[in-house]
Amino acid sequence: PATCGMIQQMALWEHPPVSGSAVCEYTIHIPAELNAVKMRFAAGIRDGSMMEGDNLCAFRVYVNGVRLWSITKQTTTWERYQIDLPSLSGQETVIQFITDALGDSRWNWAAWGEPMLLGYGPKPK
């Protein structure tokens, strides 16, 4: 669990390194019968960090090497998102959660809250 803004939830902890990015990568198979896939998650910086001034943390989501979403954060609150993924039915798919300290890794206590894939099948006839 990780706590951001005094709200605790299950999370991936991903403090970025001093230089470069931290990457948490998953390879999954998207079932062929799905006609739409979305991903729901939260991005946060854990309580107790002392982010200030120009110290920011970048959060990015890549799917099959393409950046689909990004944000920079400094606050210790969860921000919730839902993004549409490209048409991936029947494919092996690589999803990457990436954090980057943007030059200053102090206090970049990054966390991804409860990432979840949502698949939608064909419309009923």
Characterize the structure shown.
- With 125 residues, the protein is an all-beta fold.
- Helix content is 0%, strand content 55%.
- It contains no helices and ten strands.
- The chain has strands spanning 2-4, 7-9, 11-13, 21-29, 36-45, 57-63, 66-73, 79-84, 92-100, 110-120.
- The strands form three sheets. The chain has a four-stranded antiparallel sheet, with no helix packed on it. A four-stranded antiparallel sheet has the order 4-9-6-7, with no helix packed on it.
- The model has no long low-confidence stretch (mean pLDDT 94).
**How do the SSEs run, as a string of H and E?**
EEEEEEEEEE
Largest sheet: 4 strands, antiparallel
Distance between the termini: 42 Å
Number of helices: 0
Low-confidence residue ranges: none
Instruction: Estimate percent helicity.
Output: under 10%
Strand order of the largest sheet: 3-10-5-8
Structural class: mainly beta
Q: What is the strand tally?
A: 10
**Spatial shape:** elongated
Rounded Rg: 16 Å
Please, what is the average pLDDT? 94
State which percent range the strand residues make up: over 45%
SSE inventory with pairings:
Elements: E1 2-4, E2 7-9, E3 11-13, E4 21-29, E5 36-45, E6 57-63, E7 66-73, E8 79-84, E9 92-100, E10 110-120
Antiparallel strand pairs: 1-2, 3-10, 4-9, 5-8, 5-10, 6-7, 6-9
